[in-house]
Design goal:
ten-stranded mixed sheet, binds nicotinamide-adenine-dinucleotide, 14 helices, Alpha-Beta Plaits, alpha/beta, Isocitrate_DH_TT1725_C, NADP, manganese, Isopropylmalate Dehydrogenase, six-stranded antiparallel sheet, 2 domains, isocitrate dehydrogenase (NAD+) activity, 498 residues, elongated
């Protein structure tokens, strides 16, 4: 049996000085199961007394097919700028080239740098192998491999640039610690792969350690992402708040949500300084669309985070507790019903939640959100400008069917008596000259490293001279990277990867 919540607590907090009674939000119904779960979520919010002034916009497949490559029209941007709060149902990205991810576009355009994805088990009411799981994944949302900076460089090789910034890392790490502090959590774990990506993931890890120093009340730890991910999926109860760069966070939050119970159960908040977007973590599940079977819980829990964000923690508490009470009473859609239980459709599930408004769960922990929980974070510390000097250049070449020693002879000859001298050649990061191994598999994509006779002694003019010599010798250089040192420390990897 469920019990009545002390609703009066919430009622007392309904009017908060300084907070408008009705908050404008932008709502998009999306594609596939989107309209069904959005309808269900909005019905529950309205019934619970959410004070919302809804502006509807269209996004997704139809907008893409009308020729908007990001799936969103100018009027929708205007609405988002006006309301600064976006409740978004999942959309379908059309197959084929030329379509950009709407989510990535919205996150990056509006600076939604923090993606918060709680992954919680609701055992025994939702089947899971990890009954004690309560992990919040805090994912960096703008950087890493999601910059969309990709190039096909040769017949055989394409590249994607991974960009990690110090301010970006600082903001997300600080967000994770602030989140932990405000939500009564005691541990923040960072996942990176800095044993391999020493400069990019290394920077993220270094900034994490620095930020952790400001939060002595919170335990901090770092795991290499592969073993960390294995541990998190095996014993998630040992993790609390987990912060990581974009790609790892994307993957691990889906895994986290699924092993907690279902991807259909997880909500997600995308937070920026000005605007915030709330959604379910799952997609538009087109195969389930129009059948009244989808689980609206992920979107509903995203909406709960939205209510907290806009200062309606009272309604968020009411909705979340009603949802927990409904789960305890046996309400379940097909994805969480487990064997021997008749699943409810989307609409009936929503009705079950509404029937429990004002009630608290008996066995699952009840929630109690603060009325105002918006996190105002300090701006990232200004980055001190280092003394920067140039050691040389990596020149990337498209050279089909080349052999390392022959390539070296040709490059040495082309570079001649220039200031920059050939130091090494690698293929896919493995050194093949000098002292290469005949067993190393080589593609048509080569990196030739040229350096000045002593550190810091190169200049852009030397690079231009070198490129001109290579051009005259017929080399197809596809890209260059300057080899800079910052305060006398090399800002580039020295040899081959591991
Ligand atoms: P998906 O998350 O849409 O669905 C995968 C499977 O998970 C479904 O077949 C279904 O079995 C289950 N599932 C997902 N949500 C559920 C729910 N609420 N209730 C019950 N079961 C649920 O992933 P997909 O099939 O890979 O992607 C479908 C489309 O969604 C693609 O076009 C993709 O680009 C898009 N997508 C959109 C978003 C977004 O808008 N935020 C996110 C991911 C994928």
């Amino acid at each position: 049996m469920t019990r009545q919540c002390r609703v009066s607590d919430h009622a007392e907090r309904l009017i908060v000085p300084g907070i408008p009674t009705s908050v404008p939000i932008t709502v998009a119904h999306g594609d596939g199961i989107g309209p069904e779960i959005m309808r269900a979520a909005l019905e529950i919010l309205t019934e619970a007394g959410a004070r919302l002034d809804v502006e509807e916009v269209e996004i997704g497949e139809a907008v893409y097919l009308r020729g908007h490559s990001s799936g969103i029209e100018p009027e929708a941007w205007e609405s988002l700028r006006r309301t600064r709060v976006f409740l978004k149902a999942p959309i379908t990205t059309p197959q084929g080239g030329g379509f950009k991810s709407l989510n990535v576009t919205v996150r990056k355009t509006l600076g939604l740098y923090a993606n918060i994805r709680p992954c919680v088990a609701y055992a025994p009411f939702v089947p899971t192998r990890h009954p004690g799981m309560d992990v919040v994944v805090v994912r960096e949302n703008e950087e890493d491999l999601y910059g969309g900076i990709e190039h096909r460089q040769t017949d055989e090789v394409s590249q994607c640039l991974k960009l990690i910034s110090r301010p970006g890392s600082e903001r997300i790490c600080r967000y994770a610690f602030e989140y932990a502090r405000r939500h009564g959590r005691s541990r923040v774990t960072c996942f990176t792969k800095d044993n391999i990506m020493k400069l990019t993931d290394g920077l993220f890890h270094q900034v994490f350690d620095q930020v952790a120093g400001d939060y002595p009340d919170i335990t901090s730890e770092h795991w290499i992402v592969d073993i960390g991910a294995a541990k998190m999926t095996d014993t998630p109860e040992n993790f609390d708040v987990v912060v990581m760069p974009n790609l790892y966070g994307d993957i691990l939050s889906d895994i986290g949500a699924q092993i907690a119970g279902s991807v259909g159960m997880a909500g997600s908040a995308n937070i920026g300084d000005g605007v915030a977007m709330f959604e379910a973590i799952h997609g538009s599940a087109p195969r389930r669309a129009g059948r009244d079977v989808a689980n609206p819980s992920g979107l509903l829990l995203g909406a709960v985070m939205m209510l907290v964000h806009i200062g309606q923690g009272d309604v968020a508490t009411t909705v979340h507790n009603a949802w927990l009470a409904a789960l305890e009473a046996g309400a379940a859609t097909y994805d969480i019903a487990g064997p021997g239980r008749a699943p409810l459709g989307t609409r009936d599930f929503a009705k079950a939640v509404m029937a429990h408004l004002g009630q608290c769960p008996e066995r699952l922990p009840a929630v109690d959100y603060p009325v105002i929980a918006r996190q105002e974070l300090p701006a990232p510390a200004p980055v001190a400008r280092a003394k920067k000097a140039l050691d040389g250049v990596d020149v990337f070449l498209h050279a089909p069917n080349a052999r390392p020693d022959d390539l070296a002879v040709a490059l040495l000859s082309a570079a001649g008596q220039g200031w920059l001298r050939l130091q090494m050649i690698t293929n896919r990061g493995v050194k093949v000259w000098p002292d290469g191994f005949p067993e190393t598999f080589c593609t048509d994509h080569w990196r030739a490293r040229f350096t000045a006779p002593y550190p810091g002694a190169a200049a852009h003019s030397h690079i231009l001279q070198l490129l001109h010599r290579l051009y005259r010798a017929g080399f197809d250089f596809i890209k260059t990277e300057g080899l800079y040192r910052f305060d006398d420390q090399p800002g580039y990897s020295l040899g081959q990867g591991q």
